[in-house]
Each structure stands twice: as structure tokens, then as C-alpha cells.
Specification:
The structure is a single chain. An 8-stranded antiparallel β-barrel has the order 1-3-4-5-6-7-8-10. About 25% of the residues are buried. By secondary structure, the chain is mainly beta. The chain is about 5% helix and about 65% strand. It is built from 2 helices and 10 strands.
């Protein structure tokens, strides 16, 4: 059964909260391999390891203007922590060196295009462009702990399943953020997204 005109007129607001993966982060920031050859006597090296990933947690609001177009905004937060440990030249643990972390906080307006909608299932795509705030324990090349950068989020395809006020959704997309050619914070991060939402 197709969506009724009454439903379109009364349920214009959508709010959802969800989870997204950190596949990009796990590929880029991960345990380092120890040196392949023995170091001189008395020397030691620092190894970054014990990486932990928060995954992406996001919240999104959409106002539905008509059957196929909605406009809103999204907030997304993610982070990574790790530890530096000191090893002797043979790779034996000596002591903990220091803890490290970084986070990305993204806020942006978003648009969504719905191209199939019936009573229970809809298909959509979307895009958002906004601000990424990157910070944490690390300094950038200019000595800053906090850096602001452009962020772009693309939903290539998404499916929403539900009836009435409640629904679930699963999207395939990518979250990107960089500051210049050599400073990449996220590149096709948050590929898989799952969320629950409410219409009112």
C-alpha cells in the first residue's frame, strides 16, 4: 500500500540515532611492527600499540518537505586511543611511555532524496557538507592540538524499514574530512551505518 497523503502531511519530522564503522581508522592507525633488525647495544625504541576505536556514533534530524526531499542536520562523533610503550633493542617490553588519543566531531547540514517509498520500505540517498573538529593529545605540523576542516558525508544508498512512527535504517556511504592534500582525517570512513528512528 502506498504512503497516504495524511501520513505525508502529519509525519514531517524524523530523528534517528545510530552507529557507523571505523574501518578506515583501523587500517591507518594500528599497532606498529617492531624494527626488523637489532638496534645498537643500549638503545630502545617506542612502539605505538593497544589501539581502541570508539566507532561512529551519530544523531540526525530531517524535516520532510515532500515525498522525495528532506533537509536537516547531523552530528557525528568518533575517536581513537592508543598507548606508546618502550622496548629494548631485542623487542622486550621495558615500560609504558604515554597514552594518546584523537577525536573527530562532525556537524553538518544534510539533504536526503527518497526515490522509493511505500508503507513499509523506502530507499534513499543523501549528502552533507559541514565542519570537522579534530583534536586530542597530538599536535599538527603547526603545533595545534585542535584543527578545523571541511567534512563531507555521502549516503550512496540507504534502506528504511518501518511503519508508523518507528523505523530502522541501514545505509552504505562514506565520511570524508581533510585539510589540504597531506592532512587526511577520514577517507571513506563510516561506510556501514545502522540506526533507529522516529517520525512525528
Amino acid at each position: 500500500m502506498a504512503e497516504s497523503r495524511a501520513a505525508r502531511d502529519t509525519l514531517k519530522h524524523e530523528v534517528r540515532v545510530g552507529w557507523g564503522d571505523q574501518l578506515f581508522e583501523t587500517l591507518v592507525w594500528r599497532n606498529q611492527n617492531p624494527p626488523g633488525t637489532l638496534l645498537p647495544d643500549g638503545s630502545a625504541f617506542v612502539r605505538n600499540e593497544n589501539y581502541r576505536y570508539s566507532q561512529h556514533i551519530f544523531a540526525e534530524y530531517q524535516y520532510r518537505f515532500n515525498k522525495w526531499f528532506s533537509l536537516g542536520g547531523m552530528f557525528d562523533g568518533s575517536g581513537v586511543t592508543w598507548r606508546s610503550n618502550l622496548y629494548d633493542r631485542n623487542g622486550n617490553f621495558m615500560r609504558k611511555d604515554s597514552n594518546h588519543d584523537f577525536y573527530n566531531l562532525v556537524i553538518m547540514p544534510t539533504v536526503q532524496f527518497t526515490y522509493l517509498y511505500n508503507e513499509y520500505v523506502s530507499l534513499h540517498s543523501g549528502i552533507g557538507v559541514g565542519l570537522n573538529i579534530n583534536g586530542g593529545s597530538e599536535r599538527d605540523i603547526n603545533g595545534n592540538y585542535t584543527v578545523y576542516a571541511l567534512a563531507v558525508d555521502i549516503t550512496y544508498i540507504g534502506v528504511t524499514v518501518g511503519h508508523g512512527h518507528w523505523y530502522g535504517s541501514f545505509d552504505l556511504g562514506g565520511l570524508y574530512s581533510m585539510k589540504g592534500q597531506n592532512v587526511v582525517f577520514m577517507a571513506s570512513s563510516k561506510i556501514f551505518r545502522a540506526a533507529i528512528g522516529a517520525r512525528f
